[in-house]
Amino acid sequence: MIGYREALRYLYSFANYEFTPLDRASAAQLDLRRMRALLARLGDPQRGRHTVHLTGSKGKGSTAAMIAAILQRAGYRTGLYTSPHLHHETERVRVDGEPIPEREFIRLLEEMRPAVEAVNALGEYGRLTTFELRTALAFLWFREQGVEWQVVEVGLGGRLDATNVLDEKDLCVFTPVSLEHTQILGSTVAQIARDKSGILRRGTRAVMGLQRESAAEVFRAACAALDVPLEEVAQVCRMAPGRADLDGQEARLRTPRADYRLRLPLLGRHQLENAATAVLAVENLREAGVTVDPAAVQAALAEVRWPGRLEVLKQRPLVVVDGAHNGDSARRLAEALRAHFDWRRLILIAGLNADKDITAFAREFVPLRPEVIATRAALRRAAPAAQVAAAFETVGIPARQAPTVAQAVDDALLEAGAGDLICATGSLYVVAEARAWVLGVVPDPVETLH
Fold first, then answer.
1. pTM (2 decimals)?
2. For the residues 207-227, what does the mean pLDDT come to?
3. Class level of CATH domain 311-449
């Protein structure tokens, strides 16, 4: 049997668009038929269980984690598939909250190889990608583990995403949509929403988180065309935020079916909105036989963990990480920083992928008057630190550069006093590197990523 490092090297030997930019040419090769061909050779492991399928630009990972936590608390064996990971590839595939063990990851990848090679040898629909292999592996693990409910997050868009082989699903969830991957999904929010609406199927139900009206109109029309019942958080839920501290926040949530007193160990108003979406989603599973009382929902959400999202790593000085990756996310992060933290000086460590609108991201921090250290994560998609710094300077925020995230963190810690706040943000890859450096986490070996 090969080792974990060799397994990763094999997995990453395929086209991996998390590390290499997906341009129009490569996007034209997206084709669900090769994914279906692979799954057919594996016995269609995506079938045979209840499914919640989520897409959106922001909050889909957090919302998916909350839905899975509630289902698990209700006594269902629950699989969760999300992306990207922070430190270890195995984080992406979980059953009842536990990542797939490395030995099982290695075994399944080895067992898949003949089917992978057969599909690629035919070459009829192009060659399989890293994301397609890991998606198939997740379904295999869920089948082996007797999962009753699988909660699956889309990787990119919706219509042609590898997860969109889920033809039998109970619920589709649309978290907030904003401008992302515009060279692939479309140049407007409405166009991006149209691509994401491609996960809908007749016979399912849908829940929509808070949206811009242009996206909401697309989802409403898509649901109506397929006779899919749709519930909207904005129309049927009422949220009253309560007390908050560095360990979490409280809120009262009213839905059409129940009242909830929530304690959420995640910070930011946007996480309360994600919680409302998750609760409404689980309520919409009643036709599939799911009944969860408010006490179980409250207990599940009180224990949910989703690292790297407005996460406090250290308190003196205060060190926070958050994977805000575009202008909208940056606005929500700036709001959350003002709402939850006090500081004498804000040191912002920022690094984004080259395909993002970095100036729009930087503009949201102007009112906070931060000191900025621009950096880049260790992947080819990352924008050079000089490009990030230039974007901040364009909006009037001086910025200096650090060649690595670890160096940026060390520089910030060296300068920060007890009353200062350090926030590392941008891509989740920057967050992962900052988190690993501060907490001493040993991530998967870097050389396997390229």
1. 0.94
2. 97
3. alpha beta
